[in-house]
Design goal:
The chain is of the alpha/beta class. It is built from 12 helices and 23 strands. MU-OXO-diiron (FEO) binds next to α2.
Length: 401
């Protein structure tokens, strides 16, 4: 596609990537991803962001198709310097040597660090505008969404807000481009996984940005990944509001690992007891099998979290440790927590897990317990007690339990 017109002389010139397995070499891309970039054609021409370097040919072809051989690009607005959006920056400056790079003070620290010095730069601050002719651009600073330099750019005539990673999603654009062309229910899991994996650490900054946007009249959100929002703007705003408040739905994630099946047996018993106790949704993940990305996404979704681990070399099982490290790193909070495990010789798994209740904002609702050798009646009773307490904490306690 050589560009899709969003409004008169404003084009999407992004690309789809269905080849990369891991975003940031970490997060699975089973459904691909899009790198959205934009072009505004006016007396002065402006690009909003570029694309990942491996897709530069399609990006340059789209620009060429829209501008022809003679019209130059005057500005490249850099909303975000992560290489999935700044990948083609240097090539653009080589193709259009008189182009002016537009960014904030922090943007240009990254530009210099990644690519060196450029002769034409324009440093902008909050509220500054850039006149293109019939269109003008206004800049809104949104640091840490999701890097320190990130900003949004508002096209003031059509009121299109180029939001960077905010309101983005995993998933390629398979023919659809706008929210009203897509099945939103089908997109939501990948939107939530993207938020929790990529932007989830920055919940305060998300709330601050949503507060700022209340005073900005917008007809369209144009993010750097996923759907462009022109109809259901309040839908994506409400999802971001909910996710960044870490409100969670009434349900429980059990995330465990099990070497020889004993911790797994306790997980299955717990899951059954949770359902019996009235919990409407229970998801069980084996951390040795399910990628961290999906477990984090479900932890973002539900209010309850139960972690289970066998002892491993006097400590936590490695895949459970990876998960708990991520939870601490991301600052997860507002979750009801349960802890259990198994041990054969000296233990250590549950003891290490217990620290997470102290190092995070999670609320431990039942004393951690560790089965010795194999789960016995008293261990299953602990599972049952934990399930009942969890259902009560979630406010879904069943009369039949
Ligand atoms: Fe899509 Fe933070 O880059």
């Amino acid at each position: 596609m050589n560009g899709v017109e969003l409004r008169e002389n404003i084009y999407w010139i992004g690309v789809n990537d269905r080849r990369t397995h891991l975003f940031e070499n970490l997060w699975p891309l089973e459904k691909g991803i899009s790198y959205n970039a934009y072009l505004l054609k006016d007396k002065k021409t402006a690009l909003i962001d570029t694309v990942e370097i491996g897709h530069v040919e399609a990006y340059l072809d789209a620009i060429h198709a829209l501008l022809g051989p003679d019209k130059p690009v005057d500005y490249l607005v850099i909303n975000h310097m992560e290489p999935d959006h700044s990948g083609a920056l240097k090539l653009i400056t080589m193709k259009y040597p008189n182009i002016t790079l537009v960014g904030n003070k922090t943007t240009f620290k990254f530009v210099k660090g990644f690519f060196g010095d450029f002769p034409h730069i324009l440093t902008v601050e909050e509220g500054n505008t850039l006149d293109l002719g019939d269109h003008s651009l206004r800049f809104i600073m949104t640091p840490m969404l999701h890097w320190p330099e990130t900003m949004m750019t508002l096209e003031t005539r059509e009121k299109i807000l180029f939001t960077g990673d905010v309101f983005g999603s995993f998933g390629s654009l398979d023919g659809v481009l706008f929210d009203d062309e897509a099945k939103l229910d089908a997109w939501e899991p990948e939107q939530q996984r993207y938020y929790s994996n990529i932007v989830g650490k920055y919940i305060k900054q998300t709330q601050r940005a949503l507060e700022t946007l209340k005073d900005v009249e917008v007809n369209m959100f144009a993010p750097t990944h996923g759907l462009i929002w022109r109809k259901n703007l309040s839908h994506i705003v409400s999802l971001y509001d909910r996710w960044s408040r870490l409100e969670g739905e009434k349900g429980v994630v059990i995330a465990y690992s099990s070497m020889y099946g004993r911790t797994e047996r306790m997980s299955d018993y717990l899951a059954r007891e949770l359902i019996k106790a009235g919990v409407p949704d229970v998801v069980v993940h084996d951390t040795s099998k399910t990628h961290l990305s999906y477990i984090l996404s479900d932890i973002w979704k539900y209010q309850g979290l139960i972690l289970g681990s066998p002892a491993y070399n006097n400590g936590l099982f490695p895949t459970v440790e990876t998960l708990t490290t991520s939870l601490e790193h991301m600052g997860i909070k507002n979750r009801y927590l349960g802890i259990f495990g198994t041990a054969t010789w000296s233990g250590g798994g549950v003891k290490t897990l217990s620290h997470i209740a102290e190092t995070t904002g999670l609320t431990l609702i039942h004393p951690p317990y560790e089965a010795k050798y194999r789960p016995l009646e008293e261990d299953y009773q602990h599972c049952k007690d934990l399930a009942i307490k969890m259902a009560k904490a979630l406010g879904v306690s069943s009369q039949t339990c």
